Amino acid sequence: MADRIALRHITQLYPGPAHEPSTPDALLLLAGNRIVHVGREADGVPASWTADPGPVREIDCAGCVVTPGLINTHHHFFQHLTR
Prior knowledge:
Structural class: mainly beta
Shape: elongated
Number of helices: 2
Mean pLDDT: 83
Distance between the termini: 38 Å
Number of strands: 5
Low-confidence stretches: none
Order of helices and strands: EEEHEEH
Helix content: 10-25%
């Protein structure tokens, strides 16, 4: 069973390239080392997530900006946020 983490109430989620819109009040679900769901907090969690009886670590990300993935986070991190 993979570790499950729910990042809740993310103030702003930047999914990737600058042409993709950011998501306010977002929800990001992780299972092991995989992102399994990206959505809005108001839409709730998918049924497949709630059907799994395994433990979930919930992290309140209110006031935080999240950028999924760790690719190019060295000096490109600043460039990503300013584009």
